[in-house]
TrEMBL record:
Keyword flag DNA repair: no
GO terms classed as biological process: polysaccharide catabolic process
Superkingdom of source: Bacteria
Domain F5/8 type C: 542-681
Domain Fibronectin type-III: 463-549
Protein name as annotated: Fibronectin type-III domain-containing protein
PROSITE patterns noted in UniProt: FA58C_3 (PS50022), FN3 (PS50853)
Region named Disordered: 531-552
Species whose genome carries this gene: Paenibacillus ferrarius
InterPro entries assigned: BG_Antigen-Binding_Lectin, FA58C, FN3_dom, FN3_sf, Galactose-bd-like_sf, Ig-like_fold
CDD domains referenced in this protein's UniProt entry, alphabetically: FN3
Start-end of Low complexity biased regions: 535-551
Any GO molecular function: hydrolase activity, acting on glycosyl bonds
């Protein structure tokens, strides 16, 4: 029997005492039991023919069905064509969902493994086309996915005890012994909820029978199938993810419970946050369509919103800066405690998750909030044809952080925001306009469709006019100009000093700081839009700075902050109290991407910082950063280095700033700073 609408009755309960009535999946293939039984009633020579057929079809253990030929794009411009849709439809018919024992990790296979990415790809293509043949194949994959859940699947691969000491509703991460299960279980929940949500968004098909039948007794009609998927996804959330995996006591932020053997008590990495939110946001949307449980919708949405805000509204969890092309970009780390250097593999998963939340329209994420991701990829990580950086800051590492000759697929979505990179991504990932990756094809079709339906904006804004420049001190010149216009909308302005980019503004004014006294400077301004188009340069304006001043240590008696602290005896103020006998220390275990800052109270001219690492010399990488608001920081040119030692004097071109911070990118042990002094010499 099927669960009632809105209920949380697990299939495992509804199906007892027959765990899987319609298909035999114990041995790793998905042949109907009736077919399997009938084979053994035929004469021997007929049986051999059947076995040959099934072997060729890839339906026996150890065999996999393969699609004939790659998927083909007709072009990288214009609308998605019927030929492209048919190419996708043909290919997915030859792709099968993975079942035990053909994987060593069911949660991995359906999280960021091939089967999971294939489900997402089918969902995207259904959203583009509305073709129910694609939806039906997605439903089939979700049918099989649900059948592999630990509490539904019979032994030996199912009905295993999990670390919760129960036969929990999870997709295990191993194939023998006590079943492992972690945040990767968020993605299978997300697939079921995504499929349910897509069905429920189209009431016209609710009462139509699903064309592929109902071999798993999940519901004959589309709505019945959606209800099963939604209820079973809810069941995993409320029986495993909420009570066992998550600790939501930190204001609904994602932390692992202390019960979890994986990262016990730790903060969720961004890519794993995306797994959990993928399920919750689709469940919230599905329940909202039905109007059956407003309280649950509010709970799910509230959790997702909190964790999205953790990134977008909190610059202690990321860096927002102006990249070399004059565009605003993000730099972030593996989790919210790390401020930079996320590797390209996990960054792709992060971006895909944020983009899904953006597309949902439920959480106040705007295109301008997403654009710094696109700028990061187009301006920083894309270094040339088939040359993509291994980290989001443009550097390379090893493993997940190694450079690639192709774009990781989560970043393909960003081409819808920065059309100028679409062609380069397509040529890198789909040479000859072909691919055998469902994720690659579907995401290029998505971006292509977005660009086509959005009109593919190529029109530049008008040129800014009436630019004026006025010196206000020995190190600052203020600029103002008349606004430009654009067919879609102006998103900001790039400012150039002597023809060299120096900064950007979202308003019609800009303050250029860090200048040399008694010096004449010339400026131009260009307007830009969301598609990356720039106007011609404005007319030139000039101004001459005034004479300088020389105050003492500007950091004394101010307000201070730090990324983390060991305890109150090693708080941030201890590094600004004028004494080297006290010190700030980062929290236990926090070695890299730590920082300590001072609020000077008002904008002040500075050109020198002295850092004293007297007690322990542990810093192995550092730089100074400045900010006007204490939220968005920019690197101070020429201040990066490796070691500090007992005392390090760092000189730089005079600039005006209110907030100044020492950013420790790497350290051999927990960084600890005795004193920081700030001067204008």
């Amino acid at each position: 029997m099927l669960p009632n609408q809105g209920s949380l009755i697990p299939i495992s309960a509804a199906w007892q005492p027959i765990p899987q009535p319609m298909r035999n999946v114990k041995e790793g293939f998905i042949m109907p039991i009736t077919t399997a039984k009938s084979l053994f009633t035929y004469p021997k020579k007929h049986l051999m023919v059947f076995l040959l057929v099934f072997t060729c079809a890839g339906l026996l253990p150890g065999f996999k069905a393969h699609a004939a030929g790659p998927m083909v794009a007709d072009s990288f411009t214009g609308p998605v064509t019927q030929n492209e849709i048919n190419s996708f439809k043909s290919y997915i018919q030859g792709v099968e969902p993975v079942v035990w024992p053909n994987t060593g990790s069911m949660q991995g296979e359906y999280a960021q493994g091939t089967s999971g990415e294939n489900i997402k790809a089918m969902g995207l293509m259904y959203e583009i086309t509305g073709d129910t043949a694609i939806l039906d194949r997605m439903i089939y994959f979700c049918d099989v996915l649900l059948s592999q859940r630990n509490d539904i699947l019979p032994a030996p691969y199912g009905h295993r005890t999990v670390w919760t000491n129960t036969i929990a509703p999870v997709w295990p991460g191993n194939n023998t012994g006590t079943a492992s299960a972690d945040s990767a279980n968020g993605d299978p929940v997300g697939h079921l909820a995504y499929c349910a949500n897509l069905i429920l968004q189209h009431p016209a098909i609710w009462n139509t029978s699903v064309a592929i039948g109902d071999d798993y007794s999940h519901g004959a009609t589309y709505k019945q199938r959606a209800m099963t998927f939604m209820n079973e996804a809810d069941y995993v959330v409320n029986q495993f993810i909420f009570p066992s995996l998550l600790d939501l006591s930190n204001g609904n932020k994602y932390y692992f419970s202390t019960q979890s053997p994986y990262m016990s008590g730790g903060v969720f990495p961004w890519n794993q946050q995306m797994m959990i939110s993928y399920g919750l946001q689709n469940l919230a949307a599905a329940h909202a369509v039905l109007g059956d449980n407003p309280t649950l919708v509010s709970q799910y949405d509230g959790i997702v919103q909190t964790n999205l805000n953790w990134f977008f509204s909190n610059n202690t969890a990321k860096q927002t800066y102006t990249d070399s092309k004059g565009n605003t970009a993000y730099n972030w780390g593996y989790n919210p405690t790390l401020l930079g250097g996320e590797d390209s593999n996990h960054a792709s998963l992060d971006v895909a998750g944020f983009y899904r939340a953006f597309l949902s329209g439920r959480y106040g994420i705007t295109s301008s909030m997403m654009m710094p991701f696109a700028n990061m990829y187009a301006d920083v990580m894309m270094r040339g044809p088939n040359d993509f950086a291994g980290r989001v800051d443009g550097t390379d590492g090893t493993g997940h952080g190694a450079p690639t000759t192709y774009a990781r697929t989560g970043n393909i979505f960003l081409a819808a925001l920065r059309p100028d990179m679409f062609g380069d991504l397509a040529n890198a990932n789909m040479p000859n306009k072909t691919t055998t990756s469902l994720a690659t094809f579907a995401r290029f079709m998505w971006a292509k469709n977005q660009l086509n339906t959005a009109g593919g904006d190529t029109q530049a804004p008008t040129t800014p006019t009436n630019l004026t420049a006025a010196a206000v001190s020995g190190n600052q010149i203020n600029l103002s100009w008349t606004a430009s216009t654009d067919n879609v909308g102006v998103t900001g302005y790039n400012v150039y000093r002597g023809g060299v980019f120096v900064g950007s503004s979202t308003t019609t004014s800009y303050s250029d700081t860090g200048l040399t006294a008694s010096t004449t400077y010339s400026y131009t301004v260009k307007a830009k839009d969301g598609a990356g188009n720039q106007s011609a340069a404005s007319s030139t304006a000039t101004a001459t700075t005034t004479s300088p001043t020389s105050p003492g240590n500007l950091a004394l008696g101010k307000t201070y902050n730090a990324s983390t602290t060991w305890n109150t005896s090693y708080s941030a103020d201890k590094a600004f109290d004028g004494s080297t006998t006290t010190r700030w220390s980062a929290a236990n275990g926090s070695l890299n991407n730590q920082w300590i800052s001072v609020d000077l109270g008002t904008a002040a001219a500075v050109d020198q910082v002295i850092v004293k690492e007297t007690t322990y010399q542990r810093v192995t990488g550092y730089k100074l950063q400045a900010s006007s608001d204490g939220i968005t920081y920019s690197d101070i040119a020429g201040t990066a280095g490796t070691t500090l030692g007992a005392s390090k004097t760092i000189n730089f071109t005079e600039m005006t700033t209110r907030f100044l911070r020492l950013y420790v990118s790497t350290a051999s042990a927990v960084p600890t700073i005795n004193e920081i002094e700030v001067y204008n010499q």
